[in-house]
Write a structure and sequence with these properties.
With about 425 residues, this protein is α/β, with parallel strands linked by helices. It has helices at about 25-30, 35-55, 70-75, 85-90, 125-130, 130-140, 195-205, 220-225, 250-260, 280-285, 305-310, 310-320, 335-340, 365-380, 395-410; strands at about 5-10, 60, 100-105, 115-120, 150, 165-170, 180-185, 215-220, 235-240, 240-245, 265-270, 290-295, 300-305, 325-335, 350-355. The strands form five sheets. Strands 2-1-15 form a three-stranded mixed β-sheet, with helices on one face.
């Protein structure tokens, strides 16, 4: 049976605050801080476990091996010889944000009746541009059944593609045909627009989408300039509901009209800037919540603690669930380590509508598998990493051991 599975990225042992992501205000603000990789991974695992207990199907992706010596070799250097800047790029744990792993179109939307996944190229940022090869290998393991899945290599450069963080799907139910919305940027003032329209159009063609049911919406320049480096920082969709900031889109009237025409029962929950400013929305990651449908058929927001800490945001949310709208529950989680590097609950997960029985079970979360992951994290993940530690060969060796231990615990020697 087709259902939505949230695949969360496990926070890797090299999680650090290297400040590599231009336009990501949290990443820049926390540059140079000492990170806590063990706590970060445990926070992410706690969110996964809670969603599993809520009756939501849950999967996971493994951290990639760091440092990425292959990438450095392609640049004609090695960890021992590279500059500190290149070392930091080779040690980035940003693959934890699985929303950037790929763009996903369920089987009910595609011409050949298979679920299609196109790996994001992430070419805009050097520290992310080398993720795609390991991501592709992992997705081809998890979704190996050719009768049900097609996993595609990235759209070629220079067309920037940042995956599901700039893609929304609206439908009556997850297992029914939907409308896919690809959000791209053009402006943004001092910050780059990371998602190119040409890349989004290519993905739609590769997935065999009906052109009538594939919409392309431009992210507002104001949102990008304010620090919304991906659409999922200012908008999130689930089934028939779009939850968005008033300033999220450049031509919102046309988008909302198209969705009203195409999605039966479409509901817009638009947050006025007068109640929640763009600055507060981005600082709290209000829209980077997971908007999910519970087994009761009610919708809930899975939020970071920062949303509760922001007075304007929390006041709005309490009024929202007290009303008669589609969003009925708020679940708050401590994800401070991820948040400090610019990624909230929705950044950590990739949504895949599929039959769980067609997915490699080694990537499907169960209480026992989460226990096994947690045991490895508690034993092998560093408690802290300072930026100066990124130049320490002892840390590089420890990261190798951590990655090998996790692959062994999950019986995934292919990724070792």
């Amino acid at each position: 049976m087709l259902t939505e599975i949230n695949f969360d990225g496990i926070v890797g042992p090299s999680h650090n605050y290297g400040g590599l992501s231009l336009g990501n205000l949290a990443s820049a603000r926390n540059f140079g801080r000492t990170s806590a990789p063990r706590a970060a991974a445990l926070q992410g695992l706690a969110k996964m476990r809670a969603n599993l207990e809520r009756g939501l199907p849950q999967g996971f992706f493994l951290p990639q091996r760091r440092p990425d010596r292959t990438w450095l070799g392609q640049l004609g250097t090695a960890m021992e010889d590279a500059s500190s800047v290149l070392r930091a790029n080779a040690l980035s744990a940003s693959a934890m944000w699985a929303a950037n792993a790929a763009t996903v179109s369920p089987a009910v939307d595609t011409a050949d009746g298979r679920c299609h996944l196109t790996v994001a190229n992430l070419v805009t940022m050097p520290h992310r541009s080398h993720e795609w090869r390991d991501t592709l290998a992992q997705l081809r393991l998890a979704f190996a059944d050719p009768a049900h899945f097609a996993v595609h290599a990235p759209v070629p450069a220079p067309f920037g593609d940042e995956g599901a963080a700039n893609h929304m799907r609206l439908c009556s139910r997850h297992d029914e045909a939907g409308v896919e919305v690809f959000v791209y940027g053009e402006g943004g003032g001092p910050f780059p627009a990371r998602q190119h329209r040409q890349a989004s159009e290519a993905v739609a063609r590769i997935h065999g989408l009906d052109p009538v049911r594939a919409l392309f919406a431009r992210q507002s320049d104001e949102a990008i300039a304010a620090g919304a480096f991906h659409n999922d920082v200012v908008a999130v969709a689930n089934e028939r509901v779009l939850f968005a900031h008033e300033q999220a889109f450049a031509a919102k009237a046309e988008l909302f009209a198209a969705l009203t025409d195409a999605v039966p029962g479409f509901e817009l929950v638009e947050v006025p800037a007068a109640l929640v400013s763009l600055e507060d929305a981005i600082a709290s990651y209000l829209f980077n919540a997971q908007l999910v449908t519970l087994p009761s058929a009610e919708m809930a927001l899975v939020l970071p603690g920062e949303a509760r800490d922001n007075a304007a945001v929390w006041r709005y949310l309490e009024a929202l669930v007290a009303g008669n709208g589609p969003i009925r529950h708020l679940f708050v989680h401590d994800l401070r380590e991820s948040m400090a590097n610019g990624g909230g609950p929705a950044c950590l997960r990739l949504r895949v509508v599929a039959d769980p029985d067609t997915v490699d079970p080694r990537f499907i979360a169960t209480p026992a598998r989460l226990d096994a992951i947690e045991a490895v994290v508690r034993t092998y993940w560093p408690e802290t990493i300072a930026v100066a530690d990124l130049d320490d060969p002892d840390l590089w060796a420890r990261l190798d051991r951590a990655h090998a231990a996790l692959c062994a615990a999950l019986d995934l020697p292919e990724l070792g």
